[in-house]
Specification:
The complex is a heterodimer of chains A (114) and B (188). Chain A has 114 residues and is mainly alpha-helical. Chain A has five helices and no strands. Chain A is elongated and about 95 Å long. Chain A starts with a helix and ends with a helix. Chain B is mostly helical. In chain B, strands 1-2 form a two-stranded antiparallel sheet. In chain B, strand 1 and strand 2 form a beta hairpin. The longest helix of chain B is centred in the middle third of the chain and has 26 residues, at 68-93. The chains are: A mainly alpha (114), B mainly alpha (188). The interface between A and B is large, with 41 and 51 residues.
Chain lengths: 114, 188
């Protein structure tokens, strides 16, 4: 494997995203190429620096502010059956509720007849 | 404690409290993601709020093909990239040759300042997070996105593919290219 090909694969190699064959060829090349070893060390260092960049803290009152903004929104007019993915769940809930009402009505009618 | 699915169902039925519970779960990561794109707290705050409102408005279009978290991070990414594109267009649309009028009515030529750091500064500030952000801002949006999502936010290749709606192969090649470009710019 040539240096250029190895350097193209260093990025996925560092993330363990190369297959076994590629990893073997990269390791074989690295064991004999100082320039590519240096390249990989620099790349590793750079990724580490990106990872440890300061973590921002969520400003206080963020959720409260969102709550206020949500109050100003017009009520969302979602279709009664919801999104396609959640439709079975909503229909199931609606179905169960309907069954309960039918049973209640049945008992009420029997009671009235008696 | 209600599950995410229950909160989603209730949100879809118009229960805002349920949606706010979902927001509390993801607000930290949404804000951090917006901060990485925008580079300052004020803009990150606005973009995070805007992203969450957009998610609320388009909740009925959530198909459940990806997880809710992926969906919300996709919205945040798109909101930030749209805003950055809008700002870039606005800057370009200002004519650089047009003279500036002063309050006294005189006209002065604009001076373009080269904001690129000197070689010494590059060396000194290599590990400085502000400097990293500066370099990040100079990258193409697709390179910036992939570095933020992988190296700063630690998403997996599969999650990134879901957020950016591309294949894992594209993530792999784009990330490799972005890291090379970033490395070159870091070396000055």
């Amino acid at each position: 494997m040539r240096c250029k090909k190895v350097r193209d694969l260093i990025s996925p190699y560092l993330d363990q995203m190369t297959d076994e064959k590629e990893s073997h060829l990269i390791e074989e090349h690295l064991s004999a190429c100082l320039a590519c070893q240096e390249f990989m060390a620099q790349m590793k260092d750079m990724c580490r620096n990106l990872k440890i960049t300061d973590q921002p803290l969520l400003p206080a009152g963020f959720a409260e502010d969102f709550h206020q903004r949500l109050q100003k929104e017009a009520p969302r007019r979602a279709p009664w059956y919801g999104s396609r993915s959640l439709r079975p769940l909503i229909l199931k809930n609606a179905g169960n509720r309907f069954k309960e009402e039918v049973v209640r009505f049945y008992h009420w009618r029997n009671k009235t007849v008696e | 404690m209600p599950s995410e699915e229950q909160l989603l169902t209730r949100s879809l039925q118009g229960d805002n409290e349920a949606f706010e519970e979902l927001v509390i779960k993801y607000q930290n990561k949404v804000y951090t993601l917006a901060y990485r794109y925008m580079g300052n707290e004020e803009d990150a705050y606005d973009m995070a709020q805007e992203s969450l409102l957009k998610a609320y408005r388009s909740l009925s279009t959530f198909k459940g093909k990806s997880s809710f978290s992926t969906w919300i991070y996709r919205i945040t990414t798109n909101v930030c990239l749209d805003e950055l594109r809008r700002r870039k267009r606005r800057i370009i649309s200002l004519s650089l040759d047009e003279p500036l009028a002063t309050r006294e009515g005189d006209e002065v030529e604009k001076e373009i300042v080269d904001s690129a750091p000197t070689a010494d500064l590059v060396y000194e500030r290599k590990e400085d997070s502000q400097y990293i952000q500066t370099i990040l801002n100079r990258l193409r949006p697709e390179h910036k996105s992939i570095l933020i999502l992988r190296d700063m936010m630690d998403f997996s290749y599969t999650e990134i593919a879901d957020i950016l709606q591309c294949s894992v192969g594209t993530v792999k090649s784009r990330l490799s290219r972005a890291r090379l470009v970033f490395k070159e710019k870091l070396s000055g």
